[in-house]
């Protein structure tokens, strides 16, 4: 049975564009999974995002009104200069970066070059143009395998792979920049596990190639693109033996960026602050699969395998700091995440592309 079609986008994008009374915000990586959802929320909140993509065209269903700049590689400093020469940006939300944990282990220099050199280029150009408000897309991966849960922002940091180390290094670069120049206002957002899709079903997660993460893989099994889900380990010290994570609806995550932007513009001396964006609840692999089967009406065949190297056992967030200082709290639970993920997948079984013979 198809899930009840959730409400369409409540406010037309053209209305929001006309609103135009918000800030001019550059969103790097703005057509990616979290970036595209954040651009949409920015538009609906009345900001003027210039979304800038390096990897792909804007979501086809929204491209008519999508405020997109031409695809630019953040390692191309000259192109960055041209973007900032063309528009005075009030702030930057920086998503652009490579994010496949497994790939980063095999290609560390690609990740250090793209994520770190690219970010340094961006920060240098921002500084040269007097744009010193930044929201950076960090990750809970900087907690490594936490000794206890929930994770608070004060926990010791460690990275277990080059991707995670790029996040760690960029956080430190941001802290150093603020110390050297207090005019910088920087918010670092540590995402836990983003899943789901905008309830309209127009945008969602569409990983290129083999899906590394759990829910995009489950969605591809559900639409018949993959035969079964491999469960990496069922011998952890958890209720059902499978790994536990803090899954957060991508719309909640996007709203966290709006709250962070508001903090940057509310006049408070923010400095360089870090916030967890999660739900504060842990859910196991098998619990996520069961919730998705319920939402989709599809059976997800399983193959139980050994643990995946580098995987932590249990990770979930303390969100007290974001609730207190950003006045942000996740609204959606696992049921809505799976409902909206299935709505997107069932409407777009091949994501933004078309059947890939190699798949
Ligand atoms: C979740 C659970 C797996 C796939 C990573 C990044 C993190 C963030 C989210 C960007 C684990 C299990 C997974 C599969 C499985 N990304 N699993 N079969 O590893 O918690 O976090 O993605 O910010 O930075 O590190 O997410 O979805 O890969 O795994 O059993 O085919 O699902 O073992 O327990 P992870 P994940």
TrEMBL record:
Pathway: Carbohydrate metabolism; galactose metabolism. InterPro entries: NAD(P)-bd_dom (IPR016040), NAD(P)-bd_dom_sf (IPR036291), UDP_G4E (IPR005886). The keyword Acetylation does not apply. It comes from the Eukaryota. Its cofactor is NAD(+). One of its GO terms (molecular function) is UDP-glucose 4-epimerase activity. Signal peptide: none annotated. Its EC number is 5.1.3.-. One of its GO terms (biological process) is galactose metabolic process. Gene3D superfamilies: NAD(P)-binding Rossmann-like Domain (3.40.50.720), UDP-galactose 4-epimerase, domain 1 (3.90.25.10). Transmembrane segments: none annotated. PANTHER family: UDP-GLUCOSE 4-EPIMERASE. Belongs to the NAD(P)-dependent epimerase/dehydratase family. This is UDP-glucose 4-epimerase.
């Amino acid at each position: 049975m198809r899930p009840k079609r959730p409400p369409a986008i409540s406010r037309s994008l053209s209305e929001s564009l006309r609103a135009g009374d918000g800030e001019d915000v550059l969103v790097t990586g703005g057509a990616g999974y979290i970036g595209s959802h954040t651009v949409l929320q920015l538009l609906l909140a009345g900001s003027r995002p210039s979304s800038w993509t390096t990897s792909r065209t804007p979501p086809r269903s929204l491209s008519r009104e999508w405020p997109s700049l031409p695809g630019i590689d953040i390692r191309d400093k000259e192109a960055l200069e041209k973007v900032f020469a063309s528009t005075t940006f009030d702030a930057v939300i920086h998503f652009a970066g490579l994010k496949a944990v497994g790939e980063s282990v095999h290609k560390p220099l690609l990740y250090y070059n793209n994520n770190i050199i690219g970010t340094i280029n961006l920060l240098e150009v921002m500084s040269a143009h007097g744009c010193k408000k930044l929201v950076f897309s960090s990750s809970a991966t900087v907690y490594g395998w936490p000794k206890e849960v929930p994770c608070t922002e004060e926990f010791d940091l460690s990275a277990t792979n080059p991707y995670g180390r790029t996040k760690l290094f960029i956080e430190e670069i941001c802290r150093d920049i603020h110390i050297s120049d207090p005019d910088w206002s920087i918010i670092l957002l540590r995402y836990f596990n983003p899943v789901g899709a905008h309830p309209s079903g127009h945008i969602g997660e569409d990983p290129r190639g083999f899906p590394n993460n759990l829910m995009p893989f489950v969605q591809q099994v559900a639409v018949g693109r993959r035969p079964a889900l491999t469960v990496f380990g069922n011998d952890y010290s958890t209720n059902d033996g499978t790994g536990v994570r803090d899954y957060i609806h991508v719309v909640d995550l996007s709203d966290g960026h709006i709250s962070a932007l508001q903090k940057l513009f509310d006049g408070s001396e923010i400095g360089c602050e870090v916030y967890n964006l999660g739900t504060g609840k842990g859910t196991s692999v098998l619990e996520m699969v069961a919730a998705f089967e319920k939402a989709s009406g599809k059976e997800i065949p399983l193959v139980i395998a050994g643990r995946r190297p580098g995987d932590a056992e249990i990770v979930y967030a303390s969100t007290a700091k974001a609730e207190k200082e950003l006045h942000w709290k996740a609204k959606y639970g696992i049921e809505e995440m799976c409902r909206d993920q299935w709505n997107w997948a069932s409407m777009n079984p091949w994501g933004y592309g078309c059947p890939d013979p190699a798949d």
